[in-house]
Queue: 3 jobs
Job 1
Amino acid sequence: MLCEEQHETPSNLYSSRDVLAVNEKSGENPLPTCMEDTAAEGRQEEGSFCQSEEIQKEIKELRRRDEEECRLKQQNVRSRIDQHLIQNGGDLSLLLSQHTVPNEVKCVQLTRFGQTKNIQSDKVPLPLPMKGDVLIRSHSCGVNFHDTMTRNGILDNWVRSAKPPFIMGSEVAGEIVGLGKNVTDLKLGDRVIALPERKAWSEYVVCREEYCFKIPDQMSYHEAVALTVDGIVSHSLLFQMGNLSSGKAVLLHSTPGGLGTLVTQMARTVPNTRIFKITAERMNGKHVESSDHAVHYIERDTDYVSEIRNSYPHGVDLVLDGLHESNFHRDFNLLSPMGKYVLFGNRTTNGGLFDTAKSWLGQEKVSPLKLYEENKSICGFNLRNLLYFQKDRRYIRETFDKVCQMWQDGEIQAVFDCILQFDDFNEALQHVQDHGQVGKVILDPRISKEDSLNEHDPENMTLPTSKKEEENLERKISPDLHEGNEHKHVHGFLGKLREVFSPNV
Amino acid sequence: MLCEEQHETPSNLYSSRDVLAVNEKSGENPLPTCMEDTAAEGRQEEGSFCQSEEIQKEIKELRRRDEEECRLKQQNVRSRIDQHLIQNGGDLSLLLSQHTVPNEVKCVQLTRFGQTKNIQSDKVPLPLPMKGDVLIRSHSCGVNFHDTMTRNGILDNWVRSAKPPFIMGSEVAGEIVGLGKNVTDLKLGDRVIALPERKAWSEYVVCREEYCFKIPDQMSYHEAVALTVDGIVSHSLLFQMGNLSSGKAVLLHSTPGGLGTLVTQMARTVPNTRIFKITAERMNGKHVESSDHAVHYIERDTDYVSEIRNSYPHGVDLVLDGLHESNFHRDFNLLSPMGKYVLFGNRTTNGGLFDTAKSWLGQEKVSPLKLYEENKSICGFNLRNLLYFQKDRRYIRETFDKVCQMWQDGEIQAVFDCILQFDDFNEALQHVQDHGQVGKVILDPRISKEDSLNEHDPENMTLPTSKKEEENLERKISPDLHEGNEHKHVHGFLGKLREVFSPNV
């Protein structure tokens, strides 16, 4: 049997660790020996049933050819890298110092816009960084609603211009193993979160330096993915645009996933904030009895305007409108004097966001004079445009730093819905598209298929990706969430979290 | 000669002090003796030329009738007050404890909208407070651009509904000498700034309690007038709506008077703020050489967009648009990502503000989607609507408190253009209408005509209203403005201030 191309696996990976250790110990070849897959190993142990000399010989020959092929592949990839460095410059020494340099990397490809079947796990040549790029060995990839729209071929500017096939994904955290020419702010070994426009769902990711942000030492890669985009958006909506101060009332239409929990967590850091959350029908009942005084849940189809005016006759100070379900005039009128209406474009249920928004807002133009007469503000926030078109890296970096500070101060924490292996991308996307997630949905390129268990089994819904990360996560979760011993494992306290944070959807 | 109705004059008044002292010393009557006017006094001293018994008798008779008339008037007014208290309740004890209770008070009346001649100094019966009102003995009345529009019969809601004659003015500071029924937050003797919708230019002003705000002990009445409206507007534009933070660029179209200087002073409190001030043509030359690095002056008719983009290629973070001269699209496009456009409606040069604004903005509706795509905000601020229609007293009080705190911390200071007597209302209004003022224009009801000197004489342009206030003012002015002895008097250092602050127009 021919060996599969395989590159050095991080030592903290749960799967294949022992196999790797055996190979690492042998150390006979100047180039590393390829590992047999576990099936071949199994076959070897069954040797007592077929100890003929011929079979022994065949196995030896197979191994030799296997090793030879691996050696050639290593030679090829290293010579490709040398060529790349001669032509383009840069520094790939950290990549080259790896035990095995992968010739091909695993990723998630979109072959055609549209259905589920058009997205598939694939292998592509190792990407290499050009001028201004960095090469990241990825540890954690985020799944967001935008990915579902990308898959469906709706929204947005770059998807419209980019033609499949391409690699999916726009959020990834990992360590920098290569630098293109002229990279100035980052160095080899830096732990970063990267927000490339696409191609994030891959074992190795090339990204422009300007879309990468260093993460604090104590922050795990999964936490970085959970906190970056949602954290920057939440912070911008509440503080930069909303200018939230003590004693204000905020109206938030149902925002699932990491964004919903982060907006709530951040709003809670301001004393006496009251958050009105309009929840989906399916959440009926549960929320209303919540013991959380900061958050008031109202079912979507009820007369929430009257309900809010009962306690806030002058209306709310801040409306966060995800562009998808609110009636602009109704919510605008619900604003109190000095109130702010922030449009942030989160998601849409039917058709493209831009199509929806254009038809929805086409007739919704506002006279600035009306704002002047009523002492109101309308603000718009669109992180993708800010990052990829307006390229306001300074703002994004400063805001990310503030988010990290809030995290370090224990004011906010990363909340995960599930951490899945690459091959579960379709389940992950569907989960997000159905707004079923509570907290961040993550694809972990370091988990192999064998380690990943059915997400529908609640006890095994999520897997820790490293002991250290598990500890980090446990440390960050407030103590009251896992007082008992039953919450020692990530999937355990994530299960608990699901209970606790469900109301926040 | 009959005495003129005259009430107790504050002991710190510059004028008539000696005359008053004489009368106070006599103290023969249970009701106070009316003073002769200075002409009568003069006539008395010429007595050596007409010492006939008849003349002596005539003078005695005149005095007796004078005193009798005054006594009757005091009886009348006190009985009117008693009646008022029986019918309406309240507490007028501080008013009644005054040496003289005025039957009539001096004020500035508008008889018809339009020309200068339709506004006149007048006397009206002492106003008395109804339920929820306070009665203020005024010490300082502010003149703002809105007053000129009121006089001209343009703008705004209440002027359109109110028919002349009425008493002009919407800003007054003084002490509370009477309370209507059900006044809860204020008490007799409180020093307040009041923002009645009108009738502020009077020796005694009745105002709803909700429009009155207590001022710090150390703040003079003139300072309160200079800091309140302009301070609240400036603070709202820069911090509440603009959310100004370090390192931002602000575009400010020429804003004369107290508002312009306060916006600049407050913006300077934020590190590394750069203010682009579009100045009137007549200011040509002077400003460009300013040594002030925080403020960059650009002449109105030049290509300021290019000039700003030279140093801020991404544009400005905040545009403050006084609704009067900017081109909305030009300035909106000059906003950087995350930039804010704040419309605050300061003044208009031709026709009414509302007329101008409606024609100007009628075709300038903005799609919120555009804001979303461009990461921009549009905000409107209108203090009058906020105060009189939306009645958001809490916001106004909180913002005023922040302004007072900035003043107490020495971050901002009151700047005066001139402090004039009541009878100079027309000069004051014209000065403001012509945008000629640098700092606040004030009418002081405690200065008599004799004390007030021609404002066009620079050395006597302004007068201190009390020694204490003069000291207060001097103390507040930064030391470098009056290092020499020549600035000991208010008009002296105000002259200096004019030089120093001229560039800020």
Job 2
Amino acid sequence: MAEQAPIVRFGIMGCANIAIKVSRAIGLAPNATVVAVASRNVNKALDFISAHGLPEGTRAYGSYEEILEDEGVDAMYVPLPTSLHLKWAVATVEKRKHLLLEKPVALCVADLDRILEACEVNGVQYMDATMWMHHPRTAKMKELLSDPSRFGQLQSIHSAFSYRGDAKFMASDIRVNVDLDALGVLGDAGWYCIRAILWASGYQLPDTAVALRNPKKNEAGVLLSCAAALTWDDGRVATFHCSFLTHITMEISVMGSEGVLNLTDFVIPYEESSAPFSFVSNSGFNNGSLGWIVPPEKHVVSTQLPQEALMVQEFSRLVGEIKSHGFKAEKKWLEISRKTQLVIDAVKASIDNGFEPVQVGN
Amino acid sequence: MAEQAPIVRFGIMGCANIAIKVSRAIGLAPNATVVAVASRNVNKALDFISAHGLPEGTRAYGSYEEILEDEGVDAMYVPLPTSLHLKWAVATVEKRKHLLLEKPVALCVADLDRILEACEVNGVQYMDATMWMHHPRTAKMKELLSDPSRFGQLQSIHSAFSYRGDAKFMASDIRVNVDLDALGVLGDAGWYCIRAILWASGYQLPDTAVALRNPKKNEAGVLLSCAAALTWDDGRVATFHCSFLTHITMEISVMGSEGVLNLTDFVIPYEESSAPFSFVSNSGFNNGSLGWIVPPEKHVVSTQLPQEALMVQEFSRLVGEIKSHGFKAEKKWLEISRKTQLVIDAVKASIDNGFEPVQVGN
């Protein structure tokens, strides 16, 4: 008989909107459950628990310090504003709680390195909450991109992620508040574009980042819209655009010598249960260049669980292996997160340096 | 009874591969016919006429000078290598023949200006042979982009056009020969990307062009693959990638505050009789951000005639109005062509200046 996977007991630190979606995902994942919620106000935590149907007996705390003392919490989901990540993520892992950290994970790589070092020292699992990485569509697309006969060599990548912030968002959302999420749209939507580019490039850091001129900022100087170009010394190129001022779109185009991948809903699929993408290979101009030999093929990938539940399930599987078998933490997620941050930092530096090219750190 | 549109009598100067497609298009257009073909070798012209089913009586010439003397030719289609355009396009219009000029139209805007000035002085119609401009899909997409409630304000544009050159192409095609088409992929595939960006921006020239680092060149220094960013001082941005080293793709993404347009076959539709695009408006995250309110809608636009025949038809209509009614030449095509060349020149200058930003001329 197969061993039962242990159920990972989650605490949620902060009642952000995104915590509604992730607490549902923790409920859907077969190897995870929510046991505690903390807010700076205990009533807010209690309301969150009842409003979103969390399990009976979920403990409510009125401070982040208190939830850290809860020995029944194995892992913490931390959706706090980015400026609070350094303090509370480090405090979490110092209590030997595994860390599922909302993006953007840190204001800069120096801060992130302190979080990641704390994870390593304390032997806890780290993962950033980039949900689309866990959709089976993502694995299916990677399979195609990894096939030399169907995709060939990577040549270029483009990604765009935008959504239109309404008046309330523009006035008060944490993502446009310089004290809470100073990276603005670059840390939010841009995070996904950069992750998509790294994902498509096999996580090879680009050599250079150049931000495009005239990014849009609010009065406090927080980025509302920006774009950048990333280049590798071997000639591969990538571009991305992210915006709070543009209608929703979530695009990745990955162009190889032998094939091309396109999708326009990579961050959050149009619907939960299945997700499309298009791929074309071995095409070209037909006879007389009157059309194409074959058009792109539409693929649809179904999923039993939404991508955020698959994320929680994978995180919890890794936590379970540490708990049950003494495995070491999986470092892949930490490395990917750090590379994403390095590119964000380089793009930010280029914006701050008058759009000069910036070498991407390592 | 409606007046019969005059039939415009075309000469074809040079038997390039693309002339096969365009001579077929001249045959399909109801107001055009081929009457003469010139090559540097009369047998090549004769072979072209018989191999591609041109009308009986089509005259064959063994030099470009001779076809210019043919008074039965109203309009010339010129698909010569770019380095020959200045000489032969000017010679054509000085003979008061209307000019349908293959792209890239010139090696630089100074050369193009000499061609365009000759067109104006001689009162002939000019059009560059950018076929997709004439597909009814293009008009349908423009209608959506022009609708403030469905598209809103333009925020960003991305375009990509690539196709994979085979060994023969890389060794001997005019598009990679420094003496024939010195602009390489920038003048060929890049022409379309830049035109798409200008089209989407209402032909407002960007203020600045910055080429991306590490474009690929062949041994003679001809561009095989390159990318660039274009920016407007009001914050609009565009990026494009063009390549002879990448699988076929023909992408435009146009992102507005209220809607987004996507297509991946803009240069040559997958098939002749209809062409798709996708458009989304008034969408956003659904309740709980578990999906989208509405996914993009797929539109399919049918056409009776292929886009290149519609191009010939429109060009011939304009020529007919000059011939029959003494109308002045339509300047729109000349202006669009010149703007496209200005952006090409700026991108080329940025590549040649170590990827520094270059102000787009006017």
Job 3
Amino acid sequence: MFEERQPVKVAEAVNKVMSFTAKGEKEYIDLMEAEGRYLAEDILADHPIPPFDRSPLDGFAIRSADTNEASKESPVQLTVKETVGAGNVSTAAIGPGEAVRVMTGTIMPKACDAVVMFELADEYVEDGLEKIQIKRRFYPDDNVSKQGEETSEGEVVVKQGSKVTSGVIAVLATFGYDRVPAVKRPVVGIYATGTELLDVNEKLEPGKIRNSNAYMVASQVKEAGAEPLYFGKLADDFDTCYEAVKTKLNDVDALITTGGVSVGDFDFLPEIYTKLGADVLFNKIAMRPGSVTTVAAKDEKLLFGLSGNPSACFVGFELYARPWIKSYLGSPAPYLQVVRGTLTADFPKPNPFTRFIRSKVEYAGNRLYASPVGMDKSQVVTSLAYTDCLAAVPGGSRGYHAGDEVDILLLNPEGSSEPIRDPEKKRSGH
Amino acid sequence: MFEERQPVKVAEAVNKVMSFTAKGEKEYIDLMEAEGRYLAEDILADHPIPPFDRSPLDGFAIRSADTNEASKESPVQLTVKETVGAGNVSTAAIGPGEAVRVMTGTIMPKACDAVVMFELADEYVEDGLEKIQIKRRFYPDDNVSKQGEETSEGEVVVKQGSKVTSGVIAVLATFGYDRVPAVKRPVVGIYATGTELLDVNEKLEPGKIRNSNAYMVASQVKEAGAEPLYFGKLADDFDTCYEAVKTKLNDVDALITTGGVSVGDFDFLPEIYTKLGADVLFNKIAMRPGSVTTVAAKDEKLLFGLSGNPSACFVGFELYARPWIKSYLGSPAPYLQVVRGTLTADFPKPNPFTRFIRSKVEYAGNRLYASPVGMDKSQVVTSLAYTDCLAAVPGGSRGYHAGDEVDILLLNPEGSSEPIRDPEKKRSGH
């Protein structure tokens, strides 16, 4: 009855999943709804930036040749013919000895080729005319932002596969993308299996626990950028589970189940995958928690069989389902960011498998630390609330201790309780 | 005409903003909508975890006293009376010499006090009865997850002010929070000012540019956890702007304007704040970009006057508006995470003000690097698409160079292009 499974290494399991390279189609969405989506194509500059020669500051647009002889001792006087704010166009004919008062962003008046900031122009009124006096020479293009100096027309300004952040939205708006070409999100179905599961709003009863995995996974699916579709929970009955999985697989791009992947009498998922004719990529991984994580493929759709233990389920999703979703969305960075940092607690007992220890990341100076957030048992759910990284403790013949350097997989830290300091020179490395 | 303003330091400006401590009220929302929200109260365990003594593995529940004499040489035989899966309750009366086949998560049968995993129980059938043979002694509570060993009833499992992540959702579901007490999001109004602004879907015309700041800020407001309310754009006309700001301030918890805070002829915001009777907290900060960032307070509501230059606007939001929003939501970590890392480019020209250089964070080994993503000009918008951190280069008498260690303010990096490796012992610091 006890089945021996051959564990694959973590990286090998990831590779097997990532060999499935389905990509989402393109759809157009409103700019205001684009946050967090992925670009389906390169974004091109539909015009140069700046779109025209313009003033980068508040000052006076002049003909630089007028200042050829200007000096402290012999300042040059110019007559201000007009005041033009950003968004308006100078209409006065500007001849020698004349200037235009302009604001930041104002298109350069014809015949002017330099801008003098307010601070360097002494203003006065003479014979009812507004005048300025300038005490140094200016050259052509001094203080002029030239058309196209930042970006040329037709240039790729954001690459396909980029996640739409606030910065990307600024660029999309600049170039007129009120409709954004985005990758259609994969629909990821979710079933929680287990006769022991109650709905969140049900009262506890003996032997039962509330279903937490499905809600957690739905949130992870959203965090990863996909669309969760929660189908409910399934009792431990083979035929029910088989029919449900078979039917709902038609409605999704991938199907996640939680529970039913171990070797217990009611762990039906491996058998269901076989009966479906799906190709089981692996059914055991050399990792804890989540060693029973099983992934199968059927007609290019993936079936993620995650553990029923909350933390094992969480880790299984982040390591295998997340990168597949990001890859489907076209992200060039589908994997969790791994950094090296210091473990702050002891794990003296050797374990043949790599352990992913739920931890909180902390920054001190130029070092990162991973502080385990709870007991290292896969059943433990409450520690997940405080987890923002996973410390990867290698398997092998020895234990690990506070101070050891390990890989830290960053999830999504919130921020800092410390306000920003004014950085000072002496704190530099020099 | 040229106005001298007294710059405050960055930390002082942050302190002034954060002295306004308005907090959001509590509202109840659906668990499935709770992602990214902030908890308005401590979350309590409504039951212990585990909720009952249960088996943490697939095996046989036994009376441990039956194995007192068990050894390799003289194994003990037990009769399996029943098979019980998780979610069901054993109903057989279990006497001496009897056992129950149980699965992971099954509530412990009465009279049983230990569990033997499948691997340690030889199964066989004798006289039509299912039997097991055990070759070693088990003690009371061996392989039993005891009620409450993880969490006691009434314990605080997630603290007020926590951001709702997938891990928090798992905990909320476990304890029956189908409705979640969340902090009401502040409504943050947004006006873009500037006669030069076109709507995103309008064709370019001479002297005009498309409004990108409002869309960017709306996205930043969402990223920070608040609700943006975009009121449109305003031409550079004092009365129009004054009436708009005065009226809409009634509908929001804070109002962000972009543009109009410098010293140009049409920079009306400082004057508007004065006419409103608002208290101007500062109108110049010793930072670049964004030195003209102006913040005022009127009846406990904040008016953020951000620069019209996209990058200055971006930085002004992240440094001042973001922490105020997070504080309103009750987050204990309202500030951007600051880490120390290495600058990868030269900034040879000294600047009296601290510069926040739009950069991309890179991780190599246990070091962080900030690579500037574009020209260091506040007008530059396209570099914002690639910005995921700000390198803080201190002001002062000297320039900065590649290799210098600086503060790095982390925004929201996407992840890694590198798949996870199987960590190996030899890569450890030991």
